[in-house]
Each structure stands twice: as C-alpha cells, then as structure tokens.
Recover the amino acids of this structure.
C-alpha cells in the first residue's frame, strides 16, 4: 500500500467534525500571538503534535463524505491564519496511516517528523526530538482511554510552552467503569492513576464518570497544567454521552481562547455537570 493511497479513509462518526471545528477555531485565535512571540527570527517556533494521527482522511459513517484528518485540519488552519507550524510531529500504531498522513501534509508544504507505535513509546521519541523552546500544541485523540497513559501527558507537559487538547471518552467510562472496578489492573489505572480513590460501584453512572474526569483534572493541576473551566461535551444523535474535549495550558490567554470557543458552541451542545 503506497503512502498516498486514496483508499485509506477509515469511517468516523459525524461528531469528528466537532473536534475539528474546535481545533480550527483555537488555531485561528492563537495564530496572531503565536506568530508575534514564536515565529519571528530567533524565536523558538510553533509545533504541532498528534500521536494518533490516522491516515489524514476519513469517511463519515453511513455516507460517502470524506473529511480531512485532525493533523490536516490543524496544518491548514495554522497556515491560513498566518502562523504556519515550524514542524508537525505525527505518530500512529499503523505505519500506513503515518505514511499517508505525512504524504498529505507534505503536499501542503508542511515539514513533518513521523513515528510509529503506541503513544506511550512515540511520546518519548517526540519529547526527545521536540525543541525545548517554542510553542507546542498537542491534540491527543486516542482510540480509547487505554491508548493514552498519563505518562504521555507528563512527557508533553514538561515543555514550558505547551497547550494540550484531549479527547476524553466519557462513553468508555460509562460503559466499562463497573468492569474496571473489579479488575486488578484496568485501563483507567494508567489513564488516570489513583482513580479508584474517587469512584465506587454505588455511584450513579454520571457521577462515576464525573469523578473520573475530576480526578484526571486534578492530576493535570499537579503538573501545573490546569484544565480550562469550560469543557466541551460532545453527544451523539440520541443525546448519549460520547466524549469531553478538555483543554489544558499554563498561559491565561490560551484559557481565554478556549473558553470563548466553548461559549460560542453552547447553544448547540448539552452538558451533564
């Protein structure tokens, strides 16, 4: 299978467009300060990290509509807003996906570094290769919670100027938390270490998933990476809880940008807090 094989376009739900819209909106807002502070001569540069990049294209489930992948969306948004990425770091478990995504990015004129493997392994390689200076924006869009150990976030949070947007599967928690509670070792033990101190089987489902999320947010705060007060809750066509988008950053301006994005979307979204 060639790197630019057009047949590589996995099916995704319609809600994938919600994630992409938030990435696009954030980069449009962040472009001006990023260009001013990080893209002038002698500055550190602007970098995008995506350890779950996929092939750079997907098909909306039940339709023949194709959409760009998150790395493509991010690259186009940054470039069109006047703050093109200095380099894009992408990784995936599937080598063909990495190659296809890289080919699409390079066709857009982007500089790309590629990695193959789990996020736990590739995050170590990416952290090794990322410049210490500069502004880093990471989008963490795991296939499930097990694919995103907290160690991945700790490695990225070690950089001074980093903004992180995380796809946190509330559906995974709701469907599986009872089973996770009975397992000696569960996916949540690596995703949100210590979560068992906050959750028990007697809680209602919505309370269980809220407590898992709040514990994860507390772990982020311990890294000096506070999560934004505004949380985007994405629901399915039947109003079922799918996932949260949680944004973490150290700079107050980044939080203001994210809060504005979520506020603008609230008329179309439901929340379960």
């Amino acid at each position: 299978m060639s790197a630019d094989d057009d047949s590589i376009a996995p099916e995704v739900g319609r809600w994938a467009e919600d994630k992409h819209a938030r990435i696009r909106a954030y980069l449009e807002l962040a472009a001006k300060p990023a260009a001013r502070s990080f893209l002038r001569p002698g500055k550190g540069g602007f970098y995008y990290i995506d350890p779950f990049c996929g092939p750079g294209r997907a098909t909306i489930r039940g339709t023949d509509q194709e959409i760009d992948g998150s790395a493509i969306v991010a690259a186009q948004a940054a470039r069109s807003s006047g703050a093109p990425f200095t380099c894009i770091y992408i990784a995936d478990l599937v080598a063909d996906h990495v190659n296809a995504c890289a080919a699409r990015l390079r066709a857009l004129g982007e500089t790309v570094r590629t990695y193959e493997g789990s996020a736990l392994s590739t995050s170590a390689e990416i952290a090794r290769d990322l410049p210490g200076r500069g502004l880093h924006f990471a989008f963490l869009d795991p296939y499930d919670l097990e694919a995103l150990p907290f160690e991945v976030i700790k490695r990225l949070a070690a950089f001074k100027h980093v903004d992180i947007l995380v796809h946190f599967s509330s559906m995974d928690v709701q469907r599986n938390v009872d089973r996770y509670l009975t397992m000696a070792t569960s996916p949540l033990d690596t995703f949100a270490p210590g979560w068992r101190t906050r959750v028990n089987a007697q809680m209602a489902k919505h309370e269980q998933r809220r407590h898992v999320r709040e514990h994860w947010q507390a772990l982020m705060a311990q890294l000096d990476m506070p999560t934004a007060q505004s949380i985007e809750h994405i629901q399915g066509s039947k109003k079922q809880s799918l996932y949260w988008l949680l944004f973490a950053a150290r700079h107050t301006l980044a939080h203001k940008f994210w809060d504005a994005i979520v506020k603008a979307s609230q008329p179309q979204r439901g929340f379960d807090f």
